[in-house]
Write a structure and sequence with these properties.
Length: 119
């Protein structure tokens, strides 16, 4: 696959009771994740998204602090990826964004995400 077909994105993931893996770097025993509903996770992300869009918060800073993905260490950066490498809803949302845009809430087996397309 040529790099032309690839996108680059960062994301913020919040896991919840319905997540495939109920543990993360910041919650290794899954204590918080197991008690978080999908609704609560989505609400938290919605307010984070509003803060980022209004300029009150920086995407990378927030990702570093709150994302349940190990990409948090890189400000949420997932690097480049092509079709078929991510879960379908995540891939479709990322490809639909323009560079610099931030998605609405995206649901996958991993949890709820907001995605920022970076290239």
């Amino acid at each position: 696959m040529s790099s032309r077909d690839q996108v680059k994105a960062s994301h913020i993931l919040i896991k919840h009771q319905g997540s495939r893996r109920k543990a993360s770097w910041k919650d290794p025993e899954g204590k918080v994740i197991m008690t978080t509903t999908r609704e609560a996770a989505a609400e938290q992300l919605k307010s984070i998204r509003e803060d980022i869009l209004s300029g009150k918060a920086n995407f990378e800073d927030v990702a570093t602090r709150v994302s349940d993905c190990s990409s948090a260490k890189r400000g949420g950066d997932l690097g480049p990826f092509g079709r078929g490498q991510m879960q379908k809803p995540f891939e479709e949302a990322t490809y639909a964004l323009k560079v610099g845009d931030i998605s609405e809430i995206v649901d996958t087996d991993s949890g709820v995400h907001i995605i920022k397309r970076t290239a």
